[in-house]
Amino acid sequence: MKRDGDDFQRDILASGTGGKRSYLSQQHLWSAELLARKAQELEDGATQPDPPLKPNRDHRAFVIGSVLSSVAYLEASINELFGDAVDGGDGQRQLDTDTVARLARVWGIGNERARMLDKYELALFAAGKPPLDRGNATYGNAKGVVALRNALVHYSPEWHYFGEAGPQPPQERHRLEKTLGGKFTPNCLADSLLPFFPDKCLGGGCARWSIESGKAFYEDFRQKIGLPPERASELLEWQ
User: Fold this and answer.
1) Is it true that the peptide bond before 195 is cis, omega within 30 degrees of 0?
2) Residue range 165-215, pLDDT digits in tens
3) Helix, strand or coil, per DSSP, at residue 227
4) Is 18 inside a domain boundary?
5) Assuming Cys at both sites, which of 5, 40, 45, 108 could form a disulfide with 204, CB separation 3.0 to 4.6 Å?
6) What is the pLDDT of residues 136-162, one digit of tens each?
7) Distance between CA atoms of 37 and 115, rounded to whole angstroms?
């Protein structure tokens, strides 16, 4: 009888020898995709003529989870690259031995505590590649997603003022509206009177933008460091 990969792994585990190396970057991306779809389904199924002033808790949970998972995907991806260089994981096989050795040295001097986007810069520096272009949209969008994640994780309530004069002038708008406004479709479940953050910001459009921004940034990095593009069918392995 033909044995599959699971049978082989069970044999190894049962024997008490060998080891298993786990990667979570693709699971984080799958989580982000799943939660974004859930949020969009709620928006597509909305039937109320006027959006409510209170958020739909399930909808907001899906969007927040998707944004957090999008950034976790980026963090796990770069950590896995460095970790493979140090420990001899599968990822290091796609790079030349000199680059792998330099990545391991850079990681071994405490840079695992660096800020996430700085880790990508360190990897390119170690590989002798040009730095990230901090002036282009790909980097700017990734930085915006990280800023949104930070605002959610380190959230502190703020007052938002309204008046007959209409919308707040640009200098008084929330800092995230200045950064993210116009990058995605606002949350259709939020009343127009509500502020940009968190109400209009946290919608299906934001979740989808976070995912696509993270994927574009990572693919740009892979091209720069000399890794092949991720397979478009990667996520199918999680179904």
Assistant:
1) no
2) 455 555 456 789 999 999 999 999 999 888 999 999 999 999 999 999 999
3) coil
4) no
5) 40
6) 999 999 999 999 999 999 999 888 766
7) 29
Q: Which residue has the tokens 């209170």?
A: 54
Q: How many domains does the chain have?
A: 1
Q: How far apart are CA 195 and CA 197, in angstroms?
A: 6
Which string of DSSP letters, residue by residue, matches 49-61?
A: SS--SSPPHHHHH
Give the span between the Cα atoms of 190 and 50, in whole angstroms.
Answer: 9
Residue 9 domain-assigned (yes or no):
no
Yes or no: say if 141 and 206 are a contact pair by the CB < 8 Å rule. Answer: no
Q: Which two tokens stand for residue 154?
A: 């380190």
Query: Is residue 239 situated within a structural domain?
Result: no
Q: Residue 13 domain-assigned?
A: no
b/e sequence 123-143, b meaning 16+ C-beta within 10 Å = bbebbeeeebeeeeebbbbbe
CB 133 within 8 A of CB 139: yes
Answer for the pair 216, 201: CB distance below 8 angstroms, yes or no.
no
For tokens 């640009």, name the residue: 170
CA 73-131-214 angle, 5° bins: 20
Q: Which helix (H) or strand (E) holds 67?
A: helix 57-87
Rounded to 10 degrees, the C-alpha dihedral 141/63/65/40 comes to -110
* Domain span holding position 199: 23-156+165-227
Predicted TM-score (pTM) of this structure: 0.86
